[in-house]
Specification:
By secondary structure, the chain is of the alpha+beta class. It is built from one helix and two strands. About 10% of the residues are buried. InterPro entries: Znf_RING/FYVE/PHD.
């Protein structure tokens, strides 16, 4: 029995950008400017820089 693997396009993981150019962080749920969401080349997840900093301090 073969199993097929479905992949989700990277754009489906990105928080939606509002008409005002704001994006809601999926971790803290605060709307922030798009510029506050750093892009990491090896990861498709996006969170605001504050949440990313907190994650790195706690887990790295």
């Amino acid at each position: 029995m073969s199993k097929s693997v479905q992949t989700v396009p990277e754009t489906e993981h990105l928080p939606v950008i509002s008409a005002s150019g704001m994006r809601e962080c999926p971790l803290c749920l605060i709307e922030r400017p798009v510029e506050d969401f750093p892009e990491i080349m090896t990861c498709h997840h996006r969170s605001c820089s504050t949440c990313l900093q907190t994650y790195l301090i706690l887990n790295v």
